C-alpha cells in the first residue's frame, strides 16, 4: 500500500460519544488546536481521544500513527497559507507573496512550525505549493534543474525563518525579553577598544532583535531576478 493512503473502509466517518461525526478533518482540527494550546506532547492518540470524545484507537482508522497525523496537520497549515493565492504575470511578485504566505502561516502556528517546518508532507496542499513555486521560476526562464534548486532555496528560506521565529515565540516571555534586552545592554556596552565594529553600529543593534525574514527574502528575490534568463 502506498504510504499515506488509508483504505476506504477505514476512512468511513463514525460518530463520537458526543454524537459528533468523526472524520480525518475533525481529527486534524483537534490536533492543531491541542498542539497550539499544550505543545508537542499533546499530539497523542490518548489526548486526541479524550478531546474528541472517542476511543483513542479510532484515530488509527484515519491515520497510521501520530507522525502521519503530524504531516496532515502540517499540510493543513500549508493549505490555509496558500488559500486564494493566484499569482499574476509578475513572477517575482508571485514568489514574494508566496514566501510571505508560507512564513505567516507557520508563524501563526509556532508549535507546529517547530515540529514540522522541515518535514515533507507529500499531501495535496504541499504538492500544489511545489507546483506553483516551480512554475513561477520556470516562467522566469530557468531550466528544470535550476528551477528546482532555486525553489528549494526559496522555500527553505521561508520555512527556516518561520521555524526560527516560531521557536523564539515559543520561549517563555521572560526569556524572550532577556534575549531582546541583550542587544540594548550587553552588546551596546561593549567598549570600542576591544570591539570597534560592534561599537561603530551600537545604535542599530536593536535591529538584531527583529526577524530578518523580510531582508533575507528580498535579498534572495533580487538574486533570482538578476539571474533570470527572461
UniProtKB/TrEMBL annotation:
Pfam families: TetR_C_1, TetR_N. This is TetR/AcrR family transcriptional regulator. PANTHER family: HTH-TYPE TRANSCRIPTIONAL REGULATOR RUTR, TRANSCRIPTIONAL REGULATORY PROTEIN. InterPro entries: Homeodomain-like_sf (IPR009057), HTH-type_TetR-like_transc_reg (IPR050109), HTH_TetR (IPR001647), Repressor_TetR_C (IPR004111), Tet_transcr_reg_TetR-rel_C_sf (IPR036271). It comes from Streptomyces antnestii. PROSITE patterns: HTH_TETR_2. One of its GO terms (molecular function) is DNA-binding transcription factor activity. Residues 21-81 form the HTH tetR-type domain. Residues 44-63 bind DNA. One of its GO terms (biological process) is negative regulation of DNA-templated transcription. Keywords: DNA-binding, Transcription, Transcription regulation.
Amino acid at each position: 500500500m502506498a504510504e499515506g493512503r488509508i483504505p476506504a473502509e477505514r476512512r468511513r466517518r463514525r460518530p463520537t460519544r458526543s454524537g459528533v461525526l468523526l472524520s480525518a478533518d475533525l481529527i486534524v482540527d483537534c490536533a492543531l488546536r491541542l498542539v497550539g494550546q499544550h505543545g508537542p506532547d499533546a499530539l497523542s492518540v490518548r489526548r486526541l481521544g479524550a478531546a474528541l470524545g472517542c476511543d483513542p484507537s479510532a484515530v488509527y482508522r484515519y491515520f497510521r500513527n501520530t507522525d502521519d497525523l503530524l504531516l496532515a496537520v502540517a499540510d493543513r497549515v500549508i493549505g490555509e497559507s496558500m488559500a486564494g493565492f493566484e499569482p499574476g504575470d509578475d513572477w517575482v511578485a508571485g514568489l514574494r507573496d508566496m514566501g510571505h504566505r508560507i512564513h505567516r502561516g507557520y508563524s501563526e502556528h509556532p508549535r507546529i512550525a517547530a515540529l514540522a517546518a522541515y518535514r515533507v508532507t507529500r499531501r495535496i496542499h504541499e504538492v500544489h505549493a511545489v507546483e506553483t513555486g516551480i512554475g513561477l521560476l520556470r516562467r522566469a526562464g530557468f531550466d528544470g534543474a535550476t528551477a528546482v534548486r532555486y525553489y528549494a532555496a526559496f522555500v527553505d528560506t521561508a520555512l527556516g525563518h518561520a521555524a526560527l521565529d516560531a521557536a523564539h515565540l515559543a520561549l517563555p516571555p521572560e526569556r524572550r525579553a532577556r534575549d531582546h534586552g541583550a542587544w540594548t545592554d550587553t552588546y551596546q556596552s561593549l567598549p570600542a577598544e576591544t570591539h570597534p565594529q560592534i561599537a561603530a553600529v551600537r545604535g542599530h543593534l536593536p535591529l538584531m532583535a527583529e526577524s530578518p525574514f523580510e531582508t533575507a527574502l528580498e535579498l534572495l528575490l533580487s538574486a533570482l531576478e538578476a539571474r533570470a534568463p527572461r
